[in-house]
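hey so i finally got around to running the thing on that chain from the lab meeting. sorry it took forever, my laptop kept dying and i had to restart like 3 times. anyway pasting the input first so we r on the same page abt which one it is
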Amino acid sequence: MEDQKLISKKKPAYPITNALLKYLTRHGRTIKIPIYYDDLLRFQGSVTVYDKNGKDTLWVSVYYSEFETEEINQSLKKVYSILHSDGTDTILPFLNIDSIDFCTFGNSKPFRIKVRNILNDNYLFLYIKKADASRIYGLELEDLLSPNHINFLVRKNTLIEEHISGIPGDDFINNHFDNCSPRDKVEIAKEFVKFNERCFVRLLGDMRSYNYVMVLTHDFDRIQYRIRAIDFDQQSYEGNAKVYKPQFLKENNKFVEMTMDLLQQTSIDQYISEERSLLAKRARSERKRLRGLLACMKNDTISPPEKVEQLKMDLFELTGDVNFKKANNMGEILEGALDFVIRNYKSDNKYIIKRKRTQQQSRK
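ok and heres what got predicted. didnt touch it at all, straight out
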C-alpha cells in the first residue's frame, strides 16, 4: 500500500474567484444567508462529544452567551428553511436547534447543526464551513458526475452543506463488514471498484474510510450498497496519481483484499468499463454546465505548480495521452481526464454498433 505521506497534512484554503462566484450564482448555488461561519466561532465554551462507546469523536458541543443564543438559533433555522424548503419563515416556529457541534479535526473545521422538528421529533443535520474553492469544485463535480445529487449553498466565505446519510466507512469496516453475507461482499467489492474508478477519473483524492459512507438500500431480495464521498477538500490538489485511487490507501485494505479474493480480473475490468461509460454519459448530458465549471477551474489556482507538474506527468505515463503533458493547471488536467474517458467511450460505442451491424448482415 502507498505511503500515507503522499497526502498533504495541511491543505490551504483557496479563495472563490469572481468567475466561480458568477458560475455558482448562475446555477442557484449562492444566496443571502442570515449568518456566517465566523459568527459561529464566537462561542463561549465547549463540551467534548463522546460516542456510544465512550470514545472521543473529535467533535465538541459549543454554547454561546445568552444574548447571542436566540439570534444564532433563529438564523440557523432560516438557513435550514433556505436549504431544505422555500426559504420562508412559516416553518420556523416548528424547528428547534438541538445542538451546535464544532469539529477540531481536519481542514474545513466544520460546524454541525442538529435541527429538530418539534411536531414529530424528526431531525436533520446541516454543516456550516469556511468556503474553499477546492471543496466547492468537488461538490459541484459530485453533483454533475456521480450518481448522487448534493445540495449546498455559498455566501462570501461561508459554505453550507446538507448532511449525507450513511454508515461511515471506517465504522462499517470495523463493526459491520464481518457480518456481511458472501453475496453482500461481492456487491460491496463491485461498488468499491466503481467508486475507485469514479474518484480517479474526476480527481477526488484522500478517500480514506472515514471520508466516505456506505449507503444501504434494501431491495426485495438483496441489499444494494453504494459508497458516497462526504469529504471534498482534496479535489484536484495532490500531485501523486495514486492518491486519487482509494485502493492505495491503507484504511481501505480490507475492501481491497476482499475485491482481489472475490472478483476475477475480467469482472474488475468490466466494472471499470461500466463506470467510465456512466461518467462519459453524465459528462455529455451535463456538458454545458460542466464546460462552464471547467472554464472557472482552468483559470483558477487550486494546487501548487509542483503538484500540477507531477500529476500531469503521472497521468501521461499511465495513459500516453499527450493532452496531459500539455496541461498547465488542475482544471486542464481534469478536462483531459474527462475528455480521455469520453473519447474512449465514443470509440467503444462505434465499435459495438459496427459489430452489431456486421452480425445482422451476416444473419441475412
